[in-house]
Design goal:
Blueprint lengths: L2 H19 L6 H18 L4 H22 L3 H19 L3 H18 L4 H19 L3 H19 L1 H11 L9 H9 L1
Helix pairs in contact: 1-2, 1-3, 2-3, 2-4, 3-4, 3-5, 4-5, 4-6, 5-6, 5-7, 6-7, 6-8, 7-8, 7-9
């Protein structure tokens, strides 16, 4: 995919998000449906895998968070919606849900840092949404929390000590009934 197509997809996602959330208070469901729908359409148009799929997901994350910021809506709800929407799209694409959760969590934390959002909050929202997605798909909840925390910690490791500290702090708490996901995630991220 070239930069023009990436920008086009990113802009399409952003525009769809801004239009869909206009005037809504709870944007989680709208974000889930927009992200999932856009990714499924992308899969139908272009059979992509590997790095190309990751770029598509990354563009969806960028477009969504940029659109939400532009509309002045809740970044926390959008983060949750992105995770759930991306994971839902794996049912259609045949991608591995746990790999998708890890990569999406990583990308959400990276993007949060880029646009000045608390990476700890982004990690927490990402992990909560990963557990919700796993519950919806009948997957192991603890594994989903662990791989989401792992992705968040990997991103934080690239961002520096402050980001690592923020992410570790939230992952030592109980998230969605799962205690201390940081311990297992730290071993996986190292």
């Amino acid at each position: 995919m070239n930069n023009k197509n990436e920008d086009s997809f990113r802009d399409s996602v952003k525009s769809a998000v801004v239009t869909a959330i206009d005037g809504l208070e709870d944007i989680t469901d709208v974000t889930v449906n927009t992200v999932s729908g856009m990714l499924i359409v992308g899969v139908d148009r272009v059979r992509f895998a590997g790095q190309e799929a990751r770029r598509h997901v990354d563009d969806a994350i960028h477009g969504t968070l940029d659109g939400v910021r532009e509309a002045g809506a809740s970044i926390s709800q959008a983060t949750r919606g992105v995770m759930i929407g991306v994971v839902r799209s794996t049912k259609h694409s045949g991608s591995d849900a746990m790999d998708t959760i890890r990569e999406t969590s990583r990308a959400l934390v990276q993007r949060a840092s880029e646009i000045g959002i608390d990476v700890g909050a982004a990690a927490s929202d990402s992990i909560e949404a990963a557990v919700e997605s796993a519950r919806e798909l009948g997957l192991d909840l603890e594994e989903a929390a662990t791989v989401a925390a792992t992705g968040a910690l990997e991103a934080a490791g690239e961002l520096g000590k402050r980001a690592v500290d923020q992410v570790r702090k939230v992952t030592t708490d109980t998230i969605e009934g799962i205690q201390n996901v940081a311990k297992t995630a730290s071993r996986k991220a190292d």
